[in-house]
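User: I've been trying to design a sequence by hand for this structure and keep getting stuck. Would you show me what you'd pick, starting by listing the structure so we're on the same page?

Assistant: Good idea, let's start from the same input. This is the structure you sent:
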């Protein structure tokens, strides 16, 4: 019985990885096609000695390279499996492919493989990296490379797809054990990604797939990308890194894994945002009209009024929702946003501590950790003063309403995420003896005010640029 699928592999100087991949394909008796980008090592010889058909094509980007491969190899099988040279099949996936019965997949046009990604020898299990599904196998002639992407290549197939959850491909680029290689590689990728996003801003690119949070893995990625494009630059890397570390448990990854999440989730995304601004500045080479600014007196007045209102309203509301002279039972029971915020912070802290292996509970006011003691979340712990300052500045500053609302919401979320991180660290490491010497509230406020000041500076500079461009146009 003939094997119903062929393998296509992209290579460039892959003499380190290609033998490993070809060994994992041995015994499947499937045709192998290798598209090389001009390797200067023994990659082509290794491929030819293994019986693979080899073509050469200059590299522009991954989507176009895959497009060339699918259109120029003489594939005879009904299915094709597209792999990168630094990937290998696990024994379980190889067995699944060995027993692949095409008759059982009538009506299915594509199959997602589950990928395990390794960095410096460590499997990246958290931060949204596992499970991670890639469309790798599809009917030849039906699937195609998405050319609307410039860096993140993906294949698209019409119709029904299926996910193989229990069988994996392993991806480990051994060259990335040298961090200089990783940085140089992602510096090149950041050029492609920045260019792509600038073109999307000019409506020169669009997403091929219909974004859907509850669709296929790639449709969900398209939905998340659409959300990403709407977030303010420089703020979104902070949000994304916080999301990966806290909500997707990247904090559990260990030293190597946390380094990976920082580099890939924050550093790389920040470099892209910087390059986007550089490209926009280069495109906008006409003399700029002066940016329109509000009067400093007007801004100061509104900032002061907003801050006084937010700060003292929170204090007033805290007073009337706690037993005392002006206590309001109705507001305390039904509209107590301060108690709701405290409970949300406690719930998140308890959840993370349990993920870390600690026995933790709360009583709506205190965080209790077995063997560690009790941490009380008093009013000053909730970050409302910081949020009042941040909100007053954003609302008082002259900028488009949409930009204000996005930045305001993002900033408040980041403040409270950092607050949760503080509670978790205090619950594990802080001692009553240390609290007599160092006031952790003061330390936290100093750190947060520095972060807020930097964020506001970047946001103001960005809005000034956009305002100036709009005046010119």
């Amino acid at each position: 019985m003939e094997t119903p699928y062929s393998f296509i592999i992209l290579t460039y100087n892959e003499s380190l990885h290609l033998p490993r991949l070809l060994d994992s394909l041995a015994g499947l008796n499937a045709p192998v096609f290798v598209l090389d980008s001009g390797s200067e090592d023994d990659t082509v010889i290794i491929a030819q000695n293994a019986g693979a058909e080899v073509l050469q094509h200059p590299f522009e980007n991954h989507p176009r390279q895959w497009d060339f491969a699918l259109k120029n190899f003489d594939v005879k099988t009904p299915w094709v499996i597209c792999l990168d040279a630094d990937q290998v099949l696990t024994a379980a996936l190889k067995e699944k492919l060995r027993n692949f019965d095409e008759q059982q997949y009538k009506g299915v046009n594509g199959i997602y493989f589950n990928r395990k990604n390794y960095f410096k020898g460590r499997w990246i299990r958290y931060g949204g990296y596992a499970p991670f599904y890639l469309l790798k196998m599809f009917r030849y002639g039906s699937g195609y490379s998405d050319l609307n992407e410039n860096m993140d290549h993906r294949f698209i197939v019409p119709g029904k797809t299926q996910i193989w959850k229990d069988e994996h491909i392993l991806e480990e680029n051994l060259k990335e054990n040298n961090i200089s290689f990783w940085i140089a590689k992602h510096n090149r990728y950041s050029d492609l990604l920045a260019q792509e996003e600038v073109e999307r801003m000019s409506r020169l690119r669009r997403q091929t797939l219909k974004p859907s949070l509850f669709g296929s893995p790639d449709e969900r990625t398209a939905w998340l990308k659409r959300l990403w494009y709407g977030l303010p630059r420089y703020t979104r890397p902070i949000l994304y890194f916080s999301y990966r570390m806290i909500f997707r448990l990247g904090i559990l990854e260990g030293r190597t894994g946390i380094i990976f999440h920082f580099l890939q989730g924050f550093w790389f995304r920040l470099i892209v945002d910087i390059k986007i601004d550089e490209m926009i500045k280069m495109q906008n080479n006409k003399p700029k009209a002066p940016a329109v600014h509000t009067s400093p007196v007007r801004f100061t007045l509104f900032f002061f009024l907003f801050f006084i209102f937010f700060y003292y309203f929170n204090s007033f509301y805290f007073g009337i929702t706690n037993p005392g002279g002006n206590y309001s039972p109705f507001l305390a029971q039904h509209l107590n946003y301060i108690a709701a915020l405290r409970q949300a912070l406690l719930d998140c802290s308890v959840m993370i501590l349990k993920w870390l292996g600690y026995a933790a509970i709360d009583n709506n006011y205190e965080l209790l950790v077995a063997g560690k003691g009790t941490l009380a979340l008093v009013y000053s712990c909730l970050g409302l003063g910081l949020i009042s300052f941040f909100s007053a500045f954003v609302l008082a500053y002259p900028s488009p309403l949409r930009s204000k609302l996005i930045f305001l919401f993002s900033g408040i979320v980041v403040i409270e995420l950092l607050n949760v991180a503080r509670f978790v660290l205090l619950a594990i490491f802080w001692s009553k003896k240390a609290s007599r010497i160092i006031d952790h509230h003061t330390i936290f406020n100093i750190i947060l005010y520095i972060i807020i000041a930097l964020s506001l500076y970047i946001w103001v500079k960005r809005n000034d640029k956009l305002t100036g461009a709009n005046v010119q146009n």
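That's my pick for every position. To get oriented when you compare it with your attempt: The longest helix spans residues 440-472. The CA atoms of residues 98 and 151 lie 32 Å apart.
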